[in-house]
Each structure stands twice: as structure tokens, then as C-alpha cells.
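Any chance you could type out a protein's amino acid sequence plus the matching C-alpha cells because I've never seen that pairing?

——
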Amino acid sequence: MTVGDLDHVYYWTRDMDAAVAFYRDVVGLEPVRRDGDAWAQFDSGPVQFALHGTDDEAAAPSGTVVFRVEDHVHGRTGPAFDHAPRTSDQLAERPVAD
């Protein structure tokens, strides 16, 4: 698998309206797509920025970084694919390659 450029970054939010208002009115990003409380995407240059809605009260505010992959095999499993996403602290303790 060849990892390419950064494609997009999204943050989880439990309050889509407030988050959209913040990134639009305070940060100055122009919204380009909104799917209710599920997804909002902004014009942020070559790397897309988005918000992903959740109703999960236990979900900690966090972000997800997505890279472009040219030769990804759909459904592939292996050391880098068979676990839930990890925080940077968890990665420091046990890298993905383990």
C-alpha cells in the first residue's frame, strides 16, 4: 500500500450547529456541504476539513486524519487494519506494526 498526500481531517461533534457556526463565523471557513447533523464540510484549500456528528455522549472530542492511498485493497486486514483507531499515547506504547 502506498500512502499519499493528506486528503482530509474531520472532528467529531455532538453539536453540529454550534461547530459549524464556529468554523464558519470565527475561523472564517466557507461551508461547501452539509448533511444535517451527520456531516459538514468546508472549503479549506487542498486538504478538506469536515465535522462528523455523533450522539454518543461518551465520545471524547477528537479528530481523524485521512491520507490518500493509491493501491488500497478493500477489506484488507493485517497489523495496520485489525484494530480500532489509537490515540497518540497508545501508539507510543504499542505502535501499529505490533
About this structure: The CA atoms of residues 42 and 51 lie 9 Å apart. Residues 3-71 form a domain with the 2,3-Dihydroxybiphenyl 1,2-Dioxygenase; domain 1 fold (CATH 3.10.180.10).
